[in-house]
Structures are given as structure tokens and as C-alpha cells.
Amino acid sequence: MQVGSIISLKIANKILNFAAMLLKDKTVLITGASRGIGKGVAELFAKNGANIAFTYASSVEKAAVFEKELNANYGIKAKGFQSNAADFEGSQKLAEDVIAEFGTVHCLINNAGITRDTLMMRMSEEQWDEVMNTNLKSAFNLTKGMLRHFLGNRDGSIINISSIVGITGNAGQANYAASKAGMIGFTKSIAKELGARNVRCNAIAPGFIETEMTANLDDEVKKSWISTIPLKRGGSTEDVGNACLFLASDLSKYITGQTLNVCGGMVM
Ligand code: NAP
Q1: What is the pTM of this model?
Q2: Distance from the alpha carbon of residue 157 to the mean position of ligand 1, in angstroms
Q3: Side-chain half-sphere CA neighbours of 180 within 13 A
Q4: How far apart are CA 122 and CA 114, in angstroms?
Q5: Ligand 1: does its nearest atom lie under 6 Å from the Cβ of 209?
Q6: Alpha carbon of 137 to ligand 1 centroid (Å)
Q7: Is residue 67 within 8 Å of 30, Cβ to Cβ?
Q8: With 194 labelled, which of 11, 56, 210, 224 sits at a CA distance of 20 to 30 A?
Q9: CATH no. for residue 175?
Q10: At 242, is the secondary structure helix, strand, or coil?
Q11: Is residue 159 part of a domain?
């Protein structure tokens, strides 16, 4: 092989390694990663060299298996924490524990979320409160928990997982849509408050992503959703992960206060 080709190969390898390691030696805290989008994001981040602190609500076994897989397969450090994102005091303690365990945190992903869908006529106060606390108050809880750390470091990327229905609204999801719209207003405000200290805050609004959250929908409902999507398919957890990867990494270092729709063009 000629010297020129060897050099080109070496450069190509370097580019490939760089491309695969966008978050080398960074640490991310992601809520709700025992399954679904959070799990997909955590895996992609681990492949890109990030250490992973993740939370879950009740999936103790799934989380233990996932923690083991991450540690075994990607040469990074990973640890799962059982922590209710809706609980303020618990979230402050979680933030302290994660910083103590990992030394530092570069990125927070507020992903934990639930649905309690029903028409407004039937919606109970409990269904409203549960969704608002788990989806929206949780973002306040952990942003508050990580704030001083990010400000002290003059570095941090906060990513809030909102939803397309936070932009469009959806019949039967007044509680969920309100919580997700709230996350977008929260994101813009935090971006304005923290930008001067190089702490960025962005939201991602996924459309129809194939996870356990959407697995319960009946086939007709799924088909009708998919027919409205220009790219004619539901999204994958990797599709959302790639957007998170961009917003967590230096590739987006001049981007804050934005909402990135990951929805196959469903909302433009
Ligand atoms: P999922 O499959 O139901 O997974 C939810 C995750 O959140 C699980 O890890 C769960 O832990 C955790 N969780 C739930 N309540 C929690 C709490 N109080 N404290 C801590 N963790 C909690 O959901 P998903 O589809 O991956 O959705 C993830 C996020 O994306 C949510 O915010 C959702 O609103 C948003 N989103 C999803 C879609 C979609 O089409 N799937 C579309 C737009 C937006 P356990 O396993 O322990 O219960």
C-alpha cells in the first residue's frame, strides 16, 4: 500500500473515532432510562463515550440489567438510581449523589414522563396532578438540583423532552399537552437566565415514537397517526437519541432556547 493511502486511512480512522465519540469523558444524568426513549438515548450516549447516571421509578430489575450492560459494553461508567422525578427533596438528593459519584455532570436530560389520557369531561384532579408533577415539575426539580453545579462549571447542557402535542394540543391529552407546553416555556426562560454562564437549555419535541408508551395504542389509532407523518413511519428511540446527542455535544454550542421537533415532519 502506498504511503499516501496509509495516511488517508489513518485520517479516515481518526474521523470515524471522533464521530463515534462526541461525548468522550462527559457525564450525563438522564431521568427515566430503564426503558423507552431514555434507554435508547443512554445507549447512544454510552457509545459516544459518555458516563451515564440514569434514573427509574419502579423497574428495579430492568435498571440493574441495563446498568450492567452499559458498564460491560462501552468502557464507560454507568449507574442507575431509583428516584421519583416528581419529588423535590428526592431530586435534590439525587443531584448531590450523582455529583458525588461521578465527580461532575455536563448534561441533564429531563426525560421521565407519563400519560394519563382521558377527555377533559372525565379527567380527575389526580390525573392532572400526576402528569403535571411527573412531566413538568420534575424538570424544575432537577434543573434546580443541578443549577449551582452547572453555573460553577460555566458549562452545562439541559435537554427537556417535551412533545409535539405540547405545540399542537391533542384531544384526550389536556394534562399531558399542558405539561409538555410548559416544558417549552420553561426551556426558553432557563436559556435566557443561564446563557451568560454558558449553560444551554433546549427542548426536543418527539412526535410518534415507538416505545411502551405508544405500544398500548390500538392499531387503527397508530395507522392514522402514521398516515399524517410525511416520512410515513413512527420514530425510533435512536432518532430522538441523535437529536439529544447533537444538543448535548459541542456541535450545538451556539444553540440555546430552541425546540427541535423530531417527528418525521408531522409538525412544520
Ligand atoms: P416509557 O417507555 O413509558 O418510559 C418512561 C420512563 O420514565 C421509564 O424509564 C420510567 O421508569 C420513567 N418514569 C416514569 N415516571 C417516573 C418518575 N416519577 N420518576 C422517574 N422516572 C419515571 O416512555 P417513553 O415513550 O420512553 O417517553 C419518554 C419521554 O418522551 C416522556 O417524557 C414522554 O412524554 C416523551 N415523549 C414520548 C413520545 C412517544 O411517542 N413515545 C412522544 C413524545 C414525547 P420505570 O420503568 O421505573 O417506570
Answers
A1: 0.94
A2: 20
A3: 26
A4: 18
A5: yes
A6: 14
A7: no
A8: 56
A9: 3.40.50.720
A10: helix
A11: yes
